[in-house]
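Morning!

This is the sequence you dropped in the shared folder:
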Amino acid sequence: MRHALVRFLVNALALAAAVWLVPGLHYRGTPAGFLVVAAVFGLVNALLRPILVILTCPLIVVTLGLFTLVINAILLLATGALSRHWELGFAVDGFLPAFAGGLIIGLSGAVLALVLREPRAQARRDD
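The structure's back. Tokens below.
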């Protein structure tokens, strides 16, 4: 449970960094509302990412994994569309801001995950 909460907070911080850095990503609302947007983003990632990865597997292989950046942009666009539909205050202006936002989310999420990672099971057994 703790791991899921930390992962959610890492993704929320990564999404906040993307909104702050990318001009085409906008959020108007409360911090609590932003957590709802982050939860929607997490659900979109959990439900759509596996399907998109399977459907575009040949493209991912041919591009040596770079096509996953396009998948990240599509997931961010889907989050923006759902947020607009549910009036959550999050908006994405188009594909290029979504692409840049996906890149920022991927990089900042990876950095935050490295910083906040738990010690490996082997290291715990040695103590």
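Headline: The chain has a mean pLDDT of 89.

More detail when I'm at my desk.
O.
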